[in-house]
Specification:
single chain; six-stranded antiparallel beta sheet; 1 helix; 6 strands
């Protein structure tokens, strides 16, 4: 599976889909209860729908972001 660094933290990406946005790679651009968290990735962005932090269970992207107190935008 894929891995990513989100706001400086490593996560396994279990489900994602393309999104639109601009920012530094790994920067959280938005959080949406339905779509997950939108993270900048190179020249565009990805909606991270389901992720797993090391040693943790899998979570929906928005749940993970809320638990880590990340703010989008």
């Amino acid at each position: 599976g894929a891995t990513a660094e989100v706001a400086g933290e490593p996560v396994a990406v279990l489900a994602a889909r393309p999104g639109e946005g601009d920012g530094a790679p790994g920067e959280i651009l938005a959080i949406d209860e339905t779509r997950g968290m939108l993270c900048a990735a190179g020249q565009d962005a990805l909606w991270l729908e389901k992720v797993r932090a090391p040693g943790r269970t899998a979570l929906a992207g928005a749940v993970y972001a809320r638990g880590r107190r990340f703010a989008g935008g």
